[in-house]
Design a protein that fits this description.
Blueprint lengths: L1 H31 L4 E8 L2 E3 L12 E3 L4 E8 L14 E5 L4 E3 L9 E7 L7 E6 L12 E5 L1
Parallel strand pairs: 1-4, 3-9
Antiparallel strand pairs: 1-2, 4-7, 5-6, 5-8, 8-9
Length: 149
C-alpha cells in the first residue's frame, strides 16, 4: 500500500511540475488566439469604399480600438467596363511618426493585398492610406484615415 501511495505522490509531483512549466505557454496561447479585426476596403479610381459601397473620406473615417490587431485587405474594385480596369493601384499605410507599410500592386491579376498592424502601437493615433502609383483617380485615393480610439 505504501508503494502505491509513493507512486501516486511522485506522479502528482511530476504532473504539478509539468503544469508549472506549461502555464506560461498556455497563457500566451490563450491570449494569441484572439482573431484580428478584419476589414475589407475596395479601391477604385473613385476612391476607397467599404464593403457596402459607402465611400471613406474626411468625414467618414475608420475607427479602430487601441491595442487591436488589425488586418486590412485592399480589394481591386474597378469594374470590367471601366476605363481604369487596366490600371494598377498600390496602397501605402502611413502613421504620423513615419511608420509605413505597403500593399503589393493591385490590378486585374492580383485583386487583393493585405496589411496587418497593431492599432496604437508606439503611441500612434492615426494612419492614412493612399495610392503610391501614378494611376487613374489618384486624386481620390488619398482620403482613407484610420483613427485609433
Amino acid at each position: 500500500m505504501k508503494e502505491i501511495v509513493k507512486r501516486f505522490a511522485t506522479g502528482l509531483t511530476t504532473l504539478a511540475f509539468a503544469a508549472a512549466l506549461a502555464a506560461p505557454a498556455l497563457t500566451y496561447a490563450a491570449g494569441s488566439d484572439k482573431a484580428p479585426l478584419e476589414i475589407k476596403v475596395r479601391v477604385s479610381e473613385k476612391g476607397f469604399f467599404d464593403e457596402k459601397g459607402k465611400p471613406y473620406g474626411g468625414k467618414r473615417m475608420l475607427q479602430i480600438p487601441k491595442d487591436t490587431m488589425v488586418k486590412i485587405t485592399f480589394v481591386f474594385g474597378e469594374d470590367l467596363t471601366s476605363l481604369a480596369a487596366g490600371d494598377t493601384h498600390q496602397i501605402a499605410l502611413r502613421a504620423e511618426d513615419g511608420w509605413k507599410q505597403e500593399t503589393s500592386p493591385l490590378w486585374m491579376m492580383n485583386r487583393e493585398s493585405t496589411v496587418s498592424f497593431l492599432a496604437g502601437e508606439k503611441g500612434r493615433t492615426q494612419y492614412r492610406a493612399y495610392c503610391i502609383l501614378d494611376c487613374i483617380g489618384m486624386e481620390h485615393l488619398t482620403n482613407l484615415i484610420i483613427q485609433v480610439i
